[in-house]
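Could you join me in thinking about how sequence relates to backbone shape in a protein? Would you write everything just below, so we can both look at the same thing?
***
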Amino acid sequence: MPRRLSRLHACLSLSLTMALLAGCAGSAPAAPDTPIPRRALSLLPADALLLGEQHDAPEHQVIERETVEALAARGRLAALAIEMAEEGHSTTLMDPAASEEQVQAALGWNEKAWPWASYGPAVMAAVRAGVPVLGANLPRARMRDAMTDVSLDAQLGTEAHKAQQEAVRSGHCNLLPESQIGPMTRIQIARDRAMAQTILKARTPGKTVLLLSGAGHSAKGLGVPQHLPSDLAVKTVQLQAGASPGAQREPGAFDAVWRTPALPEKDYCAALRAQAEPKR
């Protein structure tokens, strides 16, 4: 999914998705002044820790770097899996002293989609610690096949599948033709499944695979956890910019919600609406 639509999907569909499936799993949110390392370590042991960010929130990428550093410093980080690079690309066996350019080349980094200035610090923290960084996203070359793969329609329960369709619809500003809702939903499900498979391949007893992705991918009811086996200990975190007092949260989608200051309000759909309007 292009960066612009990826942001729209993460930022706009999140309110709908969370209204149906979000919430903190029965525990009070961590105090805002609790250090990130302490928050992360409090969720362990876990085979996989999923951090769900808002892509345009710079503080979320800082939290991701701090989490990588905290787990790596204690020898707890098995691998860093990232939505920001495609499945099949990795830094496995790369020298910890590798340059940023070498790391970007190994990951097939797409600067237009994912600014290196935002995500490079977390990636390089893992590389410097000798921890493999794994591309986890569905390769673009496989997206067309995913659009026509009807078996993906059965990957989620009926209600979750409907919720995912609504997330895709609103994430594209309600501008997507209805005929494309099903195929685009399949791509989203295929992306979640690809990330789950990356986690499973990197599973290491006694350590944690850390996944960095958009919050929609990390939600237990819709995202990556739906494609992981029940014997895998998974913890999920929603990184949330600002409070959302209007959202009716259903417990269970996230094990923790880490809030950061609100971002300035922005109409993410304005540009797409303008493009969709017929020219006079």
User: Anything to note?
Assistant: Strands lie at 48-53, 77-86, 133-137, 208-214, 234-241, 256-260. The radius of gyration is 18 Å. Residues 1-28, 245-249 have pLDDT under 50 and may be disordered. The chain has ten helices and six strands.
